[in-house]
Amino acid sequence: AKEFPEDFLFGAAGAAYQIEGGWDEDDKGASYWDVFTHIPAKIYNNDTGDVACDSYNKYKEDVALLKELGLKSYRFSISWPRILPDGTPIKINQAGVDYYLNLLKELKAAGIEPIVTLYHWDLPQYLSDLGGWLNPQIADYFGDFARICYKLFGDYVKYWITMNEPSSTCVNGYEQGIHPPGVPLPGAGAYQCAYVQVLAHAKAWHIYDDEFRAQQNGKVGLNNVCNWLYPKSNSTEDLAAQDRAMEFTCGLYVNPVWNGNWPQVIIDRVNYTSQKQGYSFSRLPEFTPVEIDYINGTSDFFALNIYTSYLIENVAEEAFPTPSLDQDAAYNISGDPSWTQSDAAWLYSVPDGARKVINYVNEKYKPSEIIITENGWADLGQLADQGRISYLKDYLSNILDAILEDGINVTGYTTWSLLDNFEWTDGYLYKFGLVQVDFNSANRTRTIKDSARWYQNITSTRQLFD
Ligand SMILES: CCCCCCCCCCCCC/C=C/[C@@H](O)[C@@H](N)CO[C@@H]1O[C@H](CO)[C@@H](O)[C@H](O)[C@H]1O
């Protein structure tokens, strides 16, 4: 058997909008997800997060489950409009503050380390009306929110994550418009959003560094989903496309905070296609030298989400009729028919990819610490979830090889997710939980699945058997 290091932080994750419910309880303000899900036909089955797992009222049960499963960490997010109803510091909602304080105290009593995400996609609607992640001033609002959270909760928190998956917010929300605010802006929206999110992240990091680090002694990091992408063939074109695809999906969002700027290949490509389209400037916003100095080196650890892998094939250059990120990126993405597919079409089990992407991130960004903040499997919610057990076992095995054989400092793993929950545009169709939630019962009854018992055995022995 292979063994995880003694202090390895095994845990599970969740996010405010996906589990809390209580969408308008106790003076909480509306987020743009509250508004979006209330528009008919945006979400599978018109599902909403209005009640979700009702963790706003049942957080003690959640912590008891974590404890029963022997988990040592819990990654959760703070709902910005639960603390600041319109996103601004004009009003702090005490009921929201109490909720997170109570949760943190409950975790502390159970000996569970919180890993707290400041922003997991629930932007206050008022700030969305102000332009959302296209407006650079949102970085200032985010800084104020971050400061308030550090002040209120920082004594309990050693790991802060500023943003969850800028790639998802920016591409789904502002390039494609399938997430809120729901307006597609191909070829411009995702880049502008990435620019603002990077600035917002850096602001939150600097505020911690300047005002809180000395007393609170925690770490602040940026999270992104970086999946390993395999070239479809060994042709020079496909290998270059593979490299480009890693940058367009991962580097675009993380390279600025680790290396001070956009990946060069993206700067070159967007400049080139913009010129071809008659622009006198690049559609990719340029960081000024002052901004580069400000954003560079602003992550204390790498918070890495890994789910799957894809095959990448170069797209031969054609005309450039309309701007789009896909056209700038110039590759096709697909799955390999030999890979096991989950119930969600986008998620294959390709465990080798986990070790490869950890090595990639480690070599490219040289973080002193990596935490795998999400990794999980989609099914339809059955208690006998052998597919999830196989997936977790194979991914954990590769993560352990990255630690033991490649010498990489991966210090924790929070599987996605503790509970079945609201899965964004898929509503309650796909489930990722170690614990089943009965969304048809008013009580949102929780039932432990087979995978949770399997995971409990791994976390208590720290051993993984082949
Ligand atoms: C037969 C079809 C084959 C299709 C192969 C091509 C696939 C194209 C790639 C597109 C991928 C789109 C969907 C990607 C989603 C994930 O990256 C994203 N959902 C990750 O976000 C986190 O995941 C959790 C589970 O979805 C989510 O609940 C959590 O909040 C997110 O942080």
From TrEMBL:
Listed name of the protein: Cytosolic beta-glucosidase
GO terms classed as biological process: carbohydrate catabolic process
EC number(s) recorded for this UniProt protein: 3.2.1.21, 3.2.1.46
MF-aspect GO terms: beta-glucosidase activity; galactosylceramidase activity
Keyword entries, A-Z: Glycosidase, Hydrolase, Signal
Catalytic reaction list: beta-D-glucosyl-(1<->1)-N-octadecanoylsphing-4-enine + H2O = N-octadecanoylsphing-4-enine + D-glucose; beta-D-galactosyl-(1<->1')-N-octadecanoylsphing-4-enine + H2O = N-octadecanoylsphing-4-enine + D-galactose; a beta-D-xylosyl-(1<->1')-N-acylsphing-4-enine + cholesterol = cholesteryl 3-beta-D-xyloside + an N-acylsphing-4-enine; a beta-D-galactosyl-(1<->1')-N-acylsphing-4-enine + H2O = an N-acylsphing-4-enine + D-galactose
UniProt family annotation: Belongs to the glycosyl hydrolase 1 family. Klotho subfamily.
Keyword flag Ion transport: no
Highest taxon of the lineage: Eukaryota
